[in-house]
Structure formats: structure tokens, C-alpha cells
Design goal:
Number of helices: 8
Number of domains: 3
Strand order of the largest sheet: 1-2-5
CATH superfamily of the largest domain: Elongation factor Ts, dimerisation domain
Mean pLDDT: 85
Structural class: alpha+beta
Helix content: 40-55%
Distance between the termini: 59 Å
CATH topology of the largest domain: Tetrahydropterin Synthase, Chain A
Low-confidence stretches: none
Oligomer: single chain
């Protein structure tokens, strides 16, 4: 099948994958852009899983100061090589994550970062709300509420502020697929004038 360069470019812009990966995905999907996008997302997730154990000791710290100078954010985004860390698209990703943190106010990077006592308190609340339900329904309700809690307080689980159809986690997975390196958010800090811990 003959794949048009304009379609390869469109897929590349959508996913961040290289031209050869985009072309191969379009050929495999017989020119269907939606199927090719899903193929690349799946490959990105597989690649992210393979690379997750690799050392990501390079990266950048991005800053964002919101209009009015009342909110400021610092985000550390890590990768494996200095080459990727200096890439303008990587730096833009870090900046966009800082913008996201400013607007969405997550408290933790990932569910594993939430303190056990906070999770225990949330679980106790959800179990008390589900106490009159049958066990299977109660378990499902508690799991759903816990996932909702993670989505509200964990950066990686939140819908990405610039594309509400995907969580930040998917954005990071796409970056791993595009750069073929382990990429992760190490930490962030959000300041707001007048706010104290």
C-alpha cells in the first residue's frame, strides 16, 4: 500500500513517533490513521514497560509562573541522555507539565507516592459509604472511588490539561515511544501566594 507523506507527518505530529515508525504503523493499519495511532500507543506502552528499569539520570527542571505572579511551579522531568534533555520538544513537555501542575494542583506524582495513612483514611470513608451494598458491588464502588481519588490528586492519573482525552501518564508513555528512553516525572513543587503547608 502506498502511504502518503502528509499522512505520515500527521501521524508523527499526533504521536511524537519518528517518521519510520509512523510509516510502518500506517502500512500495518492499511492507511487507517486511527488504527495506526492505537498501534503506536500500544508500542509506546510496551516500550515504556521495557525501559522503566533503566536509569534516567538526565533531564530538566522546568518552571512556570502564572499570570499575576501568584502561582509558580517547578517540575523535574528525567530521561536517560543529555541529548534528549536538550531537545526542545522534551523541554516543552516539561514546561507543559509545569503548566498542568499550576492549573490542576496535583499533590503527588503517582499513586505509589500517596502516603499509606492517606489511602487508609480514604478507604475507610469509601467502605463506610458502601456498607449497605452487596460485597461485590461494595468492592467495585470502593475501587472506583479510590481510582477517582488518584485521578484528582496524582499528576500521572489526571487528564492532561491541554488534551483532556488522555491522562498525563499516556503523555509520558508517548514520549518514551518517541525518544526510546525511560522518561518520568521525578517531582514537582507548586507555590501559591498566601498558601502555607
Amino acid at each position: 500500500m502506498d502511504i502518503k507523506a502528509v499522512d505520515v507527518k500527521k501521524l508523527r505530529d499526533l504521536t511524537g513517533f519518528g517518521m519510520m515508525d509512523a510509516k510502518a504503523a500506517l502500512q500495518e493499519a492499511k492507511g487507517d490513521l486511527a488504527k495506526a495511532t492505537k498501534l503506536l500507543q500500544k508500542r509506546g506502552a510496551e516500550l515504556a514497560e521495557k525501559k522503566s528499569d533503566r536509569n534516567a539520570g538526565q533531564g530538566v527542571i522546568a518552571s512556570y509562573i502564572h499570570a499575576g505572579d501568584r502561582i509558580g511551579v517547578l517540575v523535574e522531568l528525567n530521561c536517560e541522555t543529555d541529548f534528549v534533555a536538550r531537545n526542545k520538544d522534551f523541554q516543552k513537555l516539561a514546561y507543559n507539565l509545569a503548566v498542568h501542575v499550576a492549573g490542576m494542583q496535583p499533590l503527588y506524582v503517582a499513586p505509589d507516592d500517596v502516603p499509606k495513612d492517606v489511602i487508609a483514611k480514604e478507604m475507610a470513608l469509601y467502605k463506610s459509604q458502601a456498607k449497605d451494598k452487596p460485597k461485590a458491588a461494595a468492592d467495585q464502588l470502593v475501587a472506583g472511588k479510590l481510582n477517582g481519588f488518584y485521578e484528582s490528586v496524582c499528576l500521572l492519573k489526571q487528564p492532561y490539561v491541554l488534551d483532556q482525552d488522555k491522562p498525563v501518564e499516556a503523555l509520558i508513555t508517548e514520549a518514551v515511544g518517541a525518544w526510546k528512553e525511560n522518561i518520568h516525572v521525578s517531582r514537582f513543587v507548586r507555590f501559591e501566594v498566601g498558601e502555607r503547608e
